[in-house]
Amino acid sequence: MINSAQPQGDVPSTFRYAASVVPVLLLGGLVVRLLFLWVGADVYYHGKSPYINNDTYSFTQSFYNLLEQGIYSFNLRNPEAAFGRLPGYPFFWGAHRLLVGRTYVYPAVAFTQILLDTGAIYLVYATTRALTHDLRAAWVSALLYAGYPFIIVWLTISGSEALGTFMTILAFWWLATRPVTKATAVGAGLLIGLAFMVREYLGILLLGAFFWVYQSKGLNWHFIRLSVLVAVGFLVVYVGWPIRNYLGQHKLVLVKTRTAGYDRYAEDVSTARQWIYGWTTEADPYLDGIAGLKPLPAFPAGVVGSPAEARQIQALIQRVRQCGTGFHSWRYAQMYPRPTNCNAELAAGFTALHDSYKQRHPWLYWFRVPLINLKRAFFKSQLQQGGAGKLSFILFGYRSALLLLGLWGRGCCAGTGASGPSCFSLALCICSCALASGTWKSAT
């Protein structure tokens, strides 16, 4: 780990209290996080539990069922739920359950996540200092993370966002501060394997590790050998999951099944959702309408290609409400009760609608919705409705300002001693942290 001594090449600081800056940032970050736990969470979550969201049940029940039934699954009635959650976060949560018991497990998990995230403030400082060799830039980075609201609001929740963010920052700290050797290459793979087990798409961090090796060794046999060691470290952690699935569940599942064990995401719903996401970013209102849970909104112009297609949609909706298992669960929040269903028929119908729209409007399909999603990811200005609107606007405005500041900083790198690869690594770290913390979606 980078120590408090000034590394070679650092931009020096003449600030009198330079040695106190990092401790003050850590203490301040801890106080802010504890204040959110004790005071702010109840305000932010509008009286709802600050410890639970829609994903909590599947994480916690997976461990409960393993502990009490000997089966790792969050829904014993659905065979695919055995593959629904990778074991990283359920076991992290379960360790607290074993230590403090059922009554105090949720506050204990929140407190541990706060401590980890406070440690992440230092890791951000150390990573930035190693990449930029600028003490002031490292202070600013740590300050921004210490007060970053889109991680703080997740710290009380029993869900994988907070732990995934910490694992991401820890992995990048390792890549930024460790020399590239055989041991550190294996270590990088192990860390990324653990991050993958917490949030599976953090496997993208392997690209950062390979770039780390390339930056040090160039494109040669040393690069190939050390990259293989990174992969070996990753596989040591990962390979147990598909082996467990094959030996214990008699099914080779590399990560998850398509429905991930959720009854409501059977193939009727998943194909309908794929069709809807071809022309809008807001699928739930239409899925609610198709299921009969709420009135069906009007379709945007161009979605329905012909009167025949309109009749096809109406026929599909009727069949959905008769024999679609996913839509039954969507509407009634319970499993489909009958032994037969028409999911294959519904999936074929919604797939035909999807293909029709893509063929008729290729430009809108490939660019309009993705660009809207990108805009919302960077500049979305609403988290919740009602009284939280102004607060949401401020928080998302703050995030947008940080993103713009990051782009400005990248431009400044071109005029400093910071290398292009270092700037690239820092940018990849920021994007990975955003993915890990779930900041692209609402915290409601």
TrEMBL record:
It is a multi-pass membrane protein. Keywords: Cell membrane, Glycosyltransferase, Membrane, Transferase, Transmembrane, Transmembrane helix. GO terms for cellular component: plasma membrane. The keyword Transmembrane helix applies. It is found in: Cell membrane. Pfam families: PMT_2. One of its GO terms (biological process) is lipopolysaccharide biosynthetic process. The chain crosses the membrane at residues 21-41, 104-125, 137-157, 163-181, 188-213, 219-241. Residues 108-237 form the Glycosyltransferase RgtA/B/C/D-like domain. The keyword Cell membrane applies. GO terms for molecular function: pentosyltransferase activity. It comes from the Bacteria. This is Glycosyltransferase family 39 protein. It comes from Hymenobacter cellulosilyticus.
